[in-house]
Design goal:
Chain A is an all-alpha fold. Chain A is built from 3 helices and no strands. Chain A has a domain of about 40 residues. Chain B has about 725 residues and is mostly helical. The longest helix of chain B has about 40 residues. Classes of the chains: A mainly alpha (about 60), B mainly alpha (about 725).
Chain lengths: ~60, ~725
């Protein structure tokens, strides 16, 4: 029962992290680790992503 | 590399257990539909509608969408998707199917599926229920899924690009103009819904107004304080949002009530200024945080409403089919059941606007081809469920109150006494005291002629929630629901203006290259100003229309959205012909045929009808003749208003005709392609050639044990690859 609850909470956390794009940072860190590259600061990373949003607006439907 | 799924899945026999299960679902559906078809008179529970919908969706998803995916489209999971081939971590990005479902649903769901069914409830609950469910299964979900598939096979090309490349330049240009002008109408009508919900509502203005500083704070937080912490800032934002709703109750005590009681025209001005500023500010400052809030609210309210309906088990107050449906003289909008119920309920059953999203970001993020089924078809079924919930919320309201809220001020006279008398002429009874008490119950000064659907829906939601979760909070729930609608309409207005601006810059950029540079301020500011001016003008027209803005503009909005769907479905039919799948053309073909019958009949009636309630040009000639003679026609009260009616109906009529002509142009340029492709058994298309996929992911929503194991093995092998330094 408890393991189920823990699994559910983990699942929800995973889903929220993925949906909000927070997971992108973790994935980036992992990539850097594998490639042996020094990661940039989170601020710069998020700036870079915001820059992209600026040029690619997504319509919201009616 | 192991591939988990194969097209053979289609041929897999059902187990006896599955047969029994699906048989049971079919029986539940059949019982619900039978009750709905036969029950007349008192005490029909809303749950019959809810379960008729759910069981129909389940069967359609299991059988029809599977047939479309594996037979008609031929999804191939051994074929790499653009996300896998072009992965750049930004727009092309392999995304988990369940996460992408959420993204896609958040992008397609908005005020449309909520407002349309509320207005269509004037014809009774049955026509709307049937169209929402049958329409989504055979038209709306098919369109979304097929467009998504074809765009995915073309690296995520937009609808306009695909029409130009696959049908022809003329069709492409017509489609582009249609998309742009339809977007303007949609923005204007959505903004009109907000104006009607906030006019004379200091509580509403207070809480909606506060969303701007809240969003600005969230934007600042994410940019400077704690970059990237979206979840925590959304949680803070939601708490502030609820406080803003609660705080609205005290505007009177704070002495802000008079300052925040805004006239419709002041709200128009506020929205136009807001729309312009929001669309030129950086995305991170206002749009992105507002989007987080509105997505959260959207999902939250939809889930809450579904739970609330099941707990409250409300009884339908509306008739199954009202006399307005047959006579076409309803006060909410004019016209008979056919064709107007089908265009009023646009988004919940079939929405052309979705084709823009299905050919936008979503196709670039799909990890496996078979996922178009759960994301395209499944996403639209979910949207349809939202529409069903909205229809129920509108149908559980006392019908006297429903018509008092939704009839234009020109009919109700605006006071409880006059409104009660008007409701009497419709064959219903309600006292002025009842109307005043209804407004009092949610702490609004009046509910009379609060057209546009949002106040009705909010009133219905507050009834359901009060019954489900206990009393005393009706006013809070009402303003909670208004907030929820206004929030994502404003997000849609902001994002829509921005998309319109990019389209305009891109188009003008073909002639004058510098103008396409989106970082060049003179271009972006002027393009934003043009887009805002266009929808702002239509909004102004709607707000000041003596006949009633929603009454006049909502049909135009519905028809234009359905005409856009006709363009998208024409593309689907063309592509099936070109791919040599003429035998499956009927799948989008039946949707296209029905959509054309409905929209062309409606367009014809709106343009040419001799009925002064329906035909725009008939209205023009009647009002012009009277004006020439110096006579007034109700509901106009002055000669100025007479002139205003004439101008408005001319604009409406010309737009209506333009949309129909543009759609017919696209179809006319597609027909030669169909004939040529049918004769030669197919034609070359712009589809990207097949490349093998190396990615392993489950094919459907629920992963099988075998698939889970394959995914684990794949992930392990990837890790080993990385560890041994042979990383790609």
């Amino acid at each position: 029962m408890r393991t189920h609850a823990i699994k559910a909470v983990r699942g929800i956390r995973w889903y929220l992290k993925q949906s909000t794009g927070e997971a992108k940072w973790d994935e980036y860190l992992e990539r850097c680790r594998n490639d042996g590259v020094e990661p940039t600061s989170r601020r710069d990373f998020e700036r870079h992503r915001a820059e992209h949003n600026e040029k690619n607006p997504q319509p919201r439907c009616c | 590399m192991p591939t988990v799924t194969s097209p053979d899945q289609m041929r897999r026999k059902m187990t006896p257990k599955a047969m029994v299960g699906w048989g049971a679902v079919a029986v539940v559906g059949a019982v619900c539909w039978t009750v709905l078809a036969l029950a007349r008179g008192e005490n029909v529970s809303a749950l019959w509608i809810l379960f008729a919908a759910l069981s129909s969706y389940a069967i359609a998803y299991r059988f029809y969408s599977r047939f479309i995916a594996y037979k008609v489209l031929g999804v191939d999971n051994t074929r790499a998707t653009p996300a896998e081939r072009l992965q750049n971590g930004i727009d092309y990005d392999v995304t988990d199917r369940r996460v992408l479902f959420g993204h896609h649903f958040a992008a397609i769901a908005g005020a449309g599926p909520l407002v349309g069914p509320v207005l269509a409830a004037q014809m009774g609950y049955l026509p709307g229920t049937i169209w929402i469910i049958v329409g989504v299964i055979f038209a709306g979900a098919v369109q979304d899924m097929v467009v998504l598939f074809f765009s995915m096979r073309r690296n995520g090309k937009s609808l306009g690009q695909m029409v130009r490349e696959e049908i022809g330049t003329v069709g492409g240009i017509a489609a582009l103009i249609a998309v742009f002008s339809i977007m303007i109408i949609i923005l204007a009508v959505l903004a009109l819904v907000v104006v009607n919900a906030l006019a004379a509502s200091p509580w509403g203005v207070f809480s909606i107004g506060l969303t701007i500083p809240i969003a600005l704070f969230m934007g600042y937080y994410l940019r400077y304080l704690r970059p990237g912490r979206v979840m925590e800032v959304t949680a803070i934002g939601v708490v502030l949002l609820v406080l803003a709703i609660v705080g609205g109750n005290y505007v009177q005590q704070m002495g802000l009530a008079d300052a925040l009681t805004l006239s419709p025209n002041k709200l128009v001005l506020a929205l136009v200024v807001y729309g312009f500023v929001a669309s030129i500010l950086p995305v991170w400052m206002l749009l992105a945080p507002r989007d987080y809030l509105s997505t959260f609210m959207k999902v939250g309210v939809i889930v809450l409403l579904a739970v609330g309906l099941v707990i409250a088990r409300p009884v339908l107050e509306s008739q199954a089919v009202t006399s307005f449906a047959l006579k076409g003289n309803g006060p909410v909008f004019a016209g008979k059941l056919f064709p107007f119920v089908f265009i009023t309920i646009a988004c919940g059953a079939l929405s052309g606007f979705h084709a823009l999203i299905a050919s936008g970001t979503t196709p670039k993020m799909i990890s496996k081809e078979s996922h178009v089924r759960m994301i395209g078809y499944g996403g639209m079924l979910t949207e349809s469920f939202v529409a069903i919930s909205a229809l129920i919320a509108a149908s559980v309201i006392n019908q006297g109150i429903y018509f008092a809220i939704n009839s234009p001020a020109g009919s109700t006279g605006g006071t409880p006494a006059a409104a009660a008398q008007f409701i009497g002429t419709l064959g219903m009874t309600i006292t002025p005291a009842d109307l005043a008490a209804a407004a009092q119950s949610i702490h609004e000064t009046t509910l009379i002629s609060r057209t546009g659907g949002a106040p009705t829906l909010a009133f219905g939601i507050s009834l359901v929630f009060t019954k489900a979760f206990g009393g005393g909070l009706a006013a809070f729930w009402y303003h909670f629901a208004i907030m929820f609608e206004a929030l994502f309409i404003l997000t849609a207005v902001d994002a829509g203006t921005r998309v319109g601006r990019f389209m305009l810059q891109d188009t003008i950029g073909n002639v004058w290259h510098k103008y396409a540079d989106i970082s060049w301020k003179p271009a972006s500011w002027s393009a934003s100003a043009v887009v805002v001016a266009l929808w702002g003008y239509m909004l102004y027209v709607g707000v000041n229309d003596p006949i009633g803005g929603i009454y006049q503009l909502f049909p135009l909005f519905g028809i234009s959205n359905q005409l856009l769907a006709a363009i998208a479905l024409t593309l689907c039919v063309s592509l099936l012909f070109k791919h040599g799948k003429a035998r499956y053309v009927w799948v989008p073909g039946i949707a296209l045929a029905w959509d054309l019958i409905v929209t062309m009949t409606a367009s014809w009636q709106k343009v040419f009808s001799g009925d002064v309630k329906i035909g725009f040009f008939q209205q023009r000639s009647v009002f012009q003749t009277a004006l020439d003679k110096g006579l007034l026609i109700k509901p106009a009260k002055t000669m100025d208003q007479m002139q205003q009616v004439i101008t408005n109906v001319t604009v409406d009529g010309v737009l209506q005709a333009l949309f129909a002509v543009l759609t017919l142009t696209v179809i006319a340029s597609a027909i030669p392609v169909w004939i040529k492709a049918a004769k030669s058994g197919g034609l070359p298309t712009a589809e990207v050639p097949r490349q093998p996929s190396h990615l392993v992911a489950p094919a459907e929503l629920f992963a099988t044990a075998l698939e889970k194991q394959a995914v684990r093995e794949y992930e392990d092998s990837q890790r080993k690859l990385v560890a041994s330094g042979r990383s790609r």
